[in-house]
Write a structure and sequence with these properties.
By secondary structure, this protein is α/β, with parallel strands linked by helices. The chain has two domains: about 210 residues, Rossmann fold (3-Layer(aba) Sandwich); about 160 residues, 3-Layer(aba) Sandwich (Rossmann fold), CATH 3.40.50.2000. α2 crosses α14, α3 packs across α4 and α10 packs across α13. The longest helix is centred in the last third of the chain and has 21 residues.
Length: about 400
């Protein structure tokens, strides 16, 4: 069932849209696809779709699990339509079949200039279906973190690398969201001519003034975690750090578990869970916090780090993936090795309040220079134009 988020209006028949698109080289039709539930991929889509809707030249579709729709309900546009899927279940054969069927159906119906696929599973399914998609459609794959870079058996990772090399034939471009992600792709043998780096970005937000949220002197430091409560994000490490800090710190955990079968973790007394909350409220929490702790075991990028920097919040993060590009150790925050609870506690205790304030200001300057949503969207639209021009000239 098709669902339009926000106000809707009449849409021209597909044939009329196609005629207009061919007459105007700037006019585009984009179909985004993901199976990822909530988390960083959805935050990324929120920023990108908002920019593309505001551009006004594109018909935009989104195939996504229905669980994501509330997080995207602020998006509004007459030329934007969402096509919701039942929640993606990794162990269910129906889930990938539904995703493939809906993507093929919408691609054949709207014949988009660009089919932009987000995350590993959707990327594998859609690229495998390339023969069933319109020939004139350019396919972009954005992995949001390589599956072969995750901690696990080397044999499994070797198979995943081989699959990625084979599936690379089913797309026109692979967008890496950080330079480390591109380097990992090159090491895995993916074609260099298809790899493009377009870093993530977030919009500027107005948050409470520092005076309104300032922590009283001598009170516990506020340590924030944001993301899925799963192994990748290191939520267990965060909880252990908070246990060790005890009365020295109070924790705010933004997010929740995604896989319903996971066992609920036992929370220390100094940690409060907010669940998934609107991004405006997230920024308000950031404004009143002292540190964002990102103890991820692997990351393609680490969008929460950029969001924190936009709110002048220091980022203490694992030295993995795209986080290595975002955080400047000793300037905008601090690095530690994944799972090293003792080191994390030691770093937090040895950092002064003055240093935290300096980290926050430096992080904000770095956000302005590299990680704005406007910069990301301008570069992505230019990439779309390049691909469209290439295919039309072929």
């Amino acid at each position: 069932m098709d669902a339009t988020i926000g106000p809707t209006g009449s849409r021209a028949p597909v044939s009329a849209q196609a005629t207009q698109a061919r007459a105007d080289p700037l006019a585009q039709s984009i179909l985004h696809v993901t199976e990822a539930p909530l988390g960083g991929v959805v935050a990324y889509l929120e920023e990108m779709l908002a920019g593309q809707i505001a551009d006004g030249r594109m018909d935009i579709g989104l195939v996504t699990p229905e669980i994501n729709l509330p997080a995207l309900n602020q998006l509004a546009g007459e030329r934007f339509t969402a096509f919701p899927l039942p929640a993606y279940r990794r162990k269910s054969l129906l889930s990938p079949l539904r995703l493939a069927r809906e993507t093929i159906r919408q691609a054949r119906r709207t014949r988009p200039d660009i089919l932009h696929v987000h995350s590993t599973i959707a990327g594998a399914i859609v690229r495998a279906c390339r023969p069933f998609l319109p020939r004139e459609t350019a396919v972009i794959y954005c992995p949001h973190g390589w599956a072969f870079s995750r901690k696990g058996g080397e044999r499994v990772n070797a198979v995943v690398r081989l699959v990625e090399r084979l599936l690379a034939r089913g797309c026109d471009s692979i967008v890496c969201i950080s330079e480390p992600e591109r380097q990992e792709a090159l090491s895995a043998g993916l074609p260099a001519d298809k790899l493009v780096v377009i870093e993530n970005g977030v919009s500027a937000r107005t948050v409470a003034s520092p005076a309104a949220t300032k922590r009283p002197a001598g009170s516990p430091r506020r340590m924030v975690f944001a993301g899925r409560f799963d192994r990748q994000k290191g939520f267990d490490t965060y909880l252990e750090v908070m246990r060790r800090l005890g009365p020295e710190a109070e924790g705010i955990a933004i997010g929740r578990q995604i896989v319903s079968g996971d066992k609920e973790p036992e929370l220390p007394a100094n940690v409060t869970v907010t669940g998934w909350i609107p991004r405006g409220e997230v920024y308000e929490l950031y404004a009143g916090a002292d540190v964002l702790l990102v103890p991820s075991r692997w990351e393609g990028f680490g969008l929460v780090a950029v969001e924190a920097m936009q709110a002048r919040l220091p980022v203490f993060a694992s030295r993995v993936g795209g986080l290595r590009d975002i955080v400047e150790d000793g300037i905008t925050g601090r690095f530690f090795e994944p799972d090293d609870v003792e080191a994390i506690v030691s770093i937090l205790r040895s950092t002064t309040d003055a240093e935290l304030r300096a980290f926050g200001e430096a992080g904000y300057a770095r956000y302005l220079a590299r990680y704005t949503a406007d910069r990301m969207n301008r570069r992505m639209l230019a990439h779309y134009e390049s691909l469209i021009a290439t295919r039309r000239g072929a």
